[in-house]
Design brief:
four-stranded antiparallel β-sheet, elongated, alpha/beta, 337 residues, TIM Barrel
Amino acid sequence: MIIILKKGTSPDKVNEMINHFENMNFQVQEVRGVHETILGLIGDTSSLDTDDIKSMDTVAEVKRIQEPYKNANRKFHPDDTIVDVCGRKIGGGHFQVIAGPCSVESREQMISVANSVKASGAGLMRGGAFKPRTSPYSFQGLRAEGIEYLLEAKKASGLPIVTEIMSAAHLPLFEDVDVIQVGARNMQNFELLKELGKVNKPILLKRGLANTIEELLMSAEYIMAGGNKNVILCERGIRTFETATRNTLDISAIPIIKKQSHLPVIIDPSHAAGIRWMVQPLSMAAIAVGADGLIIEVHNNPEKALCDGAQSLTPEQFDQVMNDVKRTVTFFGKTMD
């Protein structure tokens, strides 16, 4: 980290700052120029808040020369992380498809969809028991009952289940859930992320609607700093000025994240576009740029879905998409096991 001091900072003030950072166990290199003084901090500066340093009355500017995330950083972990979910591997050349309805609506629905997506080649089952909705009057999910239906679908199909958590207070209900999803609206719910850092199971972390890639990786860092290294990142589209789609899929995020981090990254083409017919082309694009998986919404009767019917595929449509997915994954040298 480089700290540029304001012009005219007295030698006493400079020494005071050097002592401050040396007491924090950093090595400090001082460079005195004609017009300004620069302090270079050597050590793990990921714990330092640049805003706190900028607030000091002698500081003109602060620049990081290394990313503020350490656990999620590829520099410290050059090999791809492979997350194993009940034998289904994600990352490091292993590709998985997670499929199921936006929200859990009934026992029969979940068992039916679970069996159909498994037959098409999905490796994991998704379904929302707790639903964060923009309107307080929209369907909010079946909550604990929904998790029971998910577990019954798991028993019937053998597919591991993925479902979203909204509060740390709900953690006891998620003991038998295989992957806990953190939705876009909770990406920066730091108290929740801290609690998930203590959980011994994979976390699927979705990028927020208006968050940068660095902010996504910093949220992953919260989980990993707590001891849980099994984090799967998800690009699900960001909010832009474009109105032709529900969100704008940031396809460039995949290669950028994979260059900066060792964590597996998947794409959610359903939420990205919000349009059923776009799921297939966006899925192909995701595989081409190196994604480690997909999470796709599938509903047995989208027209009557209680949530996100317009972007949900029927089981028959999902089967067609999966045929393309399998061929493309093989073409790019990845495996679906």
